Amino acid sequence: MERSEQGADDRGEEEMGRLRVVLVEDGTVGQGSVRGALESLDVDVVAEGSDWSQLADEAQARSADAFVVVAGHDPRIVYEMAPGDRAVLVATTEVSDVAAGPAIERGASAFVMLPLDGPLFHAQIRACIARAADAAHVRQEAAQLRDQLDTRKAVERAKGILMDRLGLSEQDAFRKLQKASQDENRKMRDIAESVIRAEKMFAGNAEPEPRHIEHERRARPAS
What we know:
This protein has 223 residues and is an alpha/beta fold. It has helices at 2-17, 33-40, 52-61, 76-79, 97-105, 118-166, 170-184, 188-203, 211-219, and strands spanning 19-25, 43-49, 66-71, 87-92, 110-113. The protein is elongated.
């Protein structure tokens, strides 16, 4: 029983640890040699080529963990890099600032020398994958924060319009937006933007002056 459980654990670790990569190369560095080296390191090459637009789709469709870019004699393989959120490791016979700078700007986060050294390659590519995941998480959080801020701005504008047009209190205006959101099964931001668009349609592009500011102006004594 113990031996069986240990075997299952070993197989699970092996399955989790096996990498799936897309190999990007222009054929100027030993055609097929890098693929063979990767496969000898227990890395699955799920797609291969030099057309980034096609390979990006392949990476998505085949759930690749990373891109391995073989930087040969044609610099376009680096200058055309478009990996999206996936990790990129550049394998090359020579590292120079001329090639490294553009590669880093376009998403590369590690470099290895050819021929590949097994332990170093695995350490570098796993570090690449971890950094890419962290960066994607940060971008996702930033996008969520921007969306929350935009939603708050839209709701505040819509509340002001309802307060001005219908004479509602701020709390009642919010409740009206909230009820419309629930009744129509739409996001609060969508409801708020509908109110803003309607106001622009019926009243032009001029921003309505909030009722409380108007009252303050009227109550202010003439100087």
